[in-house]
Amino acid sequence: MPNNPRAEVLRFASHMETKLRANADKCHWREDNLSLFWFFAKASEEMKELMAELTVCKDRDFRFNMEDELAMRERIISECADVANFVMMIADTVDSERPERTEILMAGKEMNRDFYTERDS
Fold it and tell me: In terms of residue numbers, what domain contains 25?
């Protein structure tokens, strides 16, 4: 693993951290005992939101309105950070440095429609 992450990685990690801190009032993903499929479903939802932002961007002409363009860029980056955070949570859950990973991996072993918890309501 490189000792010095690229500037792009650090900049994007900062966006990810901003989103995590904005949701710090929610339970930490390591403490909530959620299945990998729950994280995957949430990442998939965020991908749909990202696609919606990209579609709006594709359909708009920003050449004459810099404020709209900057706002759109921020929304796209924000959605990218949301996707990345849920994917990071999957990676963190299966990380070999976490001794409790086997138990977490076994929870939600079979993918079905019931991998959402009541806190999603």
Answer: 7-110
